[in-house]
Design a protein that fits this description.
The chain is mainly beta. 15% of the residues lie in helices and 41% in strands. The protein has one domain.
């Protein structure tokens, strides 16, 4: 019973910390869409690779929404940095998101895709994607970027031309400090992160 109580307290602290941050920082990429209550989210049951690991996550967070009729065609491991700039806000100086810089590699360690500004993905063959956030859930890892489901638009022929959705899951790191100070205004902060990116058609 004592262990269960500690687990619940840890989960509540984690959720409270995430909710206290501005939405743009929590997403690490764009303004957050509304988060529906778990009971109203369709397809909220755990599912394969998209299901979160660990009892803590399943007890206190809903799973990421499944892509509509999506078929997984590519899974890459991403590593890089989330880039922020210290800017003056009404509530004080804050680290404001600017863009990600990450290389996405296959199981053999070959870089296939570069992830950058405007939720973009560029394959080495020249095909590109631009994403729009459809859903997000907190990461089960403390102080890590949330998991995202992106609806994508493809440009140019190649490996990404048929991709319609991308998931960012299994995130580690990428979150900035809650605030910066006047001495740091206009400074740039690079926060290392890693994640798995799953591409669906």
């Amino acid at each position: 019973m004592r262990g269960g109580s500690a687990l619940g307290q840890r989960a509540r602290r984690s959720v409270a910390a995430l909710c206290a941050l501005p939405a743009v920082l929590v997403l690490g990429c764009a303004q957050a869409p509304p988060v529906e209550p778990t009971s109203s989210v369709p397809g909220s049951e755990a599912r394969g690779a998209g299901a979160a690991p660990g009892a803590l996550y399943s007890m206190f967070h809903r799973p990421l929404k499944a892509p509509e009729a999506g078929v997984e065609v590519l899974r890459l491991s991403g590593r890089g940095a989330q880039i922020f700039r210290c800017e003056s806000q009404a509530a004080g100086a804050r680290w404001i998101y600017r863009l990600p810089e990450a290389e996405l590699r296959d199981a053999q360690g070959t870089v296939l895709v570069r992830h950058g500004a405007n939720l973009s993905f560029e394959h080495v063959d020249g095909s590109r994607l631009f994403g729009e956030i459809l859903d997000h859930v907190p990461s089960p890892n403390d102080d890590s970027l949330p998991w995202l489901l992106l609806k994508t638009r493809a440009y140019g022929p190649g490996a990404l031309s048929a991709i319609t959705y991308v998931e960012r899951i299994n995130t580690v790191g990428g979150m900035p400090p809650a605030s910066c100070d006047a001495a740091q205004l206009n400074q740039v902060l690079r926060v290392p992160f890693s994640a798995d990116f799953v591409f669906f058609r």
